[in-house]
Write a structure and sequence with these properties.
The chain has 13 helices and 27 strands. The chain has helices at 76-84, 205-208, 260-277, 280-290, 294-302, 306-312, 328-347, 353-361, 368-384, 451-461, 466-470, 480-485, 487-496, and strands at residues 8-10, 31-35, 46-47, 61-64, 100-101, 105-106, 111-114, 126-131, 146-149, 155-160, 164-171, 187-188, 194-199, 214-218, 226-230, 236-240, 244-251, 363-367, 398-400, 403-404, 424-429, 440-442, 498-499, 509-514, 519-521, 529-530, 532-535. Helix 4 packs across helix 10 (451-461). The two termini are 34 Å apart.
């Protein structure tokens, strides 16, 4: 991505009691507060996706430094508190009663730039900053605004760092987790849950009155995945699991500081994992698509500094690096898979018939009424190869995630993987789901790192990897060059994709899928609605994602020593 030039967005801030608990992302510096005298100015952020076209209705955001009246919701003391804690580029929450949202959250203290309030006593030439908890178009009461003269130091803009790209990203319906890794958490709720900004599409009269409305996006906790907003008529709205934009940022230049001791520890840990879990056959499997000797690739990986090694050994879906031309992405993927297999053996799941089917196909389908919560609990343990960690305990709560098929294109109709390492997602479908409702489709076995799949991923990851940077959930046909380089794999996946239709005669069909395999939402017939339910809560749509490079532990919590031999992979 080309770094965005200096632009600006307006944002408002208030104090939060637990600011010290918030850990900003490396991209937190991408938004830096500036008054007009310091070079700040009003500029709308770009948006991507089908609903990202520029519009006169695009909202801009504002921030006030001092309490100017009953409508102002930020304090200088709050900002000073954040700066002392090292979190100057974050937002606090709105502590007014009308800012309460969901079960346990609050709106961020962010405002929308608007006209002067009705009956305002502030002189002409002033700018009003309306909290997102109080959204209206005309006839707002003065108490709902804070207004300041243009050019005042009290009104600040968030200037974009020139090394960053910041934009509104579209989140499609029923995309869980609806939190891409580039999503920018701007603050936390009073109970410590991360919060960001969301924006409605502005084309749904029954949802947002056909206006683009900025709201608060909850990234954790009981309100996970929901966008809360206030319509122009003052009524409250929320969108659950998609059909909105979220604010995200990418720092083109890392803000990380190199640490020689950490780098040594990371190199040692990576070298030990490769020695234990990757056989000579595995190393040759990486060499064939890349055309590079494994020893050459690995020597260059071990020469990286701590900042890059932390990314390499992280769950990040894609790590931009020149070493991808030597096979770095393939190394990350195959090592994660082999360590997952070792965890299953260490936990004793590898001989279970359900695990054998899971490992072979990448999905399980069961009669939920027959197995119940206890049966689901056992399957989640098997699918994740974890007896305890990140496994929710019964009883389970479910959240409705209905999707109506539209006549236009849907990004989820494209065959794709969610990430390079195994992740577990869960659905419940009733008997109403047919091909017309756009069912989940899956390519059996496509989650395993065969040579064909590695060739496809290698082509996708090659620098400059423009498609991977824009969408790190690799699309099967993300570009012509990728489709050409892995033609056999692409054609085979398209030919073998199958819909996950409800089991015959079963009231509720449980589907557990590893979405590191190729899958998509089938196109369906416009106007039909797919009824489905997902596990409620902050769970990434099934099970919370863990470190794919965690060491295997046996059932007593001791580090296991996995066998080196690996079964031959067949797609």
């Amino acid at each position: 991505n080309v770094a965005a030039p200096y632009a600006s967005v307006f944002i408002v801030v208030t104090a939060v009691a637990r600011v010290a608990a918030f850990q900003p992302k490396d991209s937190a510096h991408c938004l830096q507060w500036r008054s007009a005298k310091q070079g700040g100015k009003s500029t709308a952020l770009r948006a991507e996706g089908l609903h990202g076209e520029p519009s006169a209705d695009d909202p801009t955001l504002c921030r006030l430094r001092t309490r100017l009246g009953p409508g102002a919701i930020s304090t200088r003391a709050g900002e000073e508190q954040m700066q002392r804690s090292g979190y100057a580029n974050t937002c606090t929450t709105d502590d007014r009663p009308e800012a309460v949202i969901g079960e346990d959250s609050r709106h961020l203290a962010v405002g929308i730039v608007g006209g002067i309030a009705v009956n305002s006593t502030v002189s002409l030439g002033a700018i009003s900053c309306r909290p997102i908890a109080n959204s209206c178009s005309q006839g707002c009461h003065e108490a709902e605004f804070a207004a300041v003269r243009q050019g005042s130091d009290e009104l600040e803009f968030a200037v974009l760092d020139p090394t960053c790209d910041v934009w509104w990203r579209e989140v499609s319906s029923d995309v869980i987790p609806p939190i891409p890794e580039l999503a920018l958490p701007l603050g936390i709720s009073p109970k410590g849950y991360k919060l960001g900004l969301c924006r409605t599409f502005g084309h749904q009269p029954g949802v947002d009155g056909s206006h683009r409305i900025v709201g608060t996006f909850v990234m954790e906790g009981p309100d996970f995945g929901q966008c809360f907003f206030t319509r122009h008529d003052g009524s409250k709205g929320q969108l659950n699991g998609g059909n909105f934009h979220i604010l995200q940022a990418r720092a083109a230049e890392p803000s990380c500081q190199e640490d020689a001791r950490l780098a040594a520890d990371l190199r040692d840990g990576l070298a030990k994992r490769v020695e234990v879990f990757l056989s000579e056959d595995d190393r040759a499997l990486i060499e064939r698509p890349s055309g590079t000797l494994f020893a050459e690739l690995f020597a260059q990986v071990l020469a990286l500094g701590s900042c890059m090694l932390k990314q390499v050994m992280s769950p990040a879906r894609f790590v931009p690096s020149p070493l991808n031309s030597l096979g770095l992405h393939l190394l990350r993927a195959l090592l994660a898979e082999r360590m997952g297999d070792a965890r299953a053996r260490a936990a004793g799941f590898d001989t279970d018939p359900d695990f054998i089917a899971w490992r072979r196909d990448g999905f399980l389908m069961k009669d939920y009424d027959a197995i119940g919560d206890q049966g689901l609990h056992r399957l989640l343990q098997i699918a994740s190869a974890e007896p305890v960690e990140a496994i929710p305990v019964p009883p389970y709560k479910w959240a409705s995630r209905n999707v109506t098929v539209t006549a236009g294109p849907d990004p989820q109709n494209d065959m794709h993987i969610d990430t390079f390492a195994s992740i577990v997602k869960v659905w419940l479908f009733d008997q109403s789901v047919s091909p017309e409702e756009g069912p989940l489709e899956y390519v059996p076995g496509s989650h395993r790192e065969t040579e064909q799949r590695l060739r496809w991923m290698f082509a996708y990851s090659l620098p400059p990897a423009r498609e991977a940077l824009v969408e790190p959930s690799f699309r099967l046909m993300g570009s012509e060059s990728v489709a050409h380089a892995a033609k056999d794999f692409v054609e085979d996946c398209l030919a073998r994709s199958r819909p996950m239709l409800p089991l015959p005669g079963v009231r509720r069909t449980l589907v557990i899928a590893d979405t590191s395999g190729l899958h998509r939402r089938a196109r369906g017939t416009a106007g039909h609605t797919r009824l489905s339910w997902r596990l409620a809560g902050d769970n990434d749509g099934g099970l919370r994602r863990l470190d794919p490079y965690r060491w295997p532990l046996d059932l007593e919590g001791r580090m296991a020593s996995p066998a080196r031999s690996q079964p031959k992979e067949e797609l």
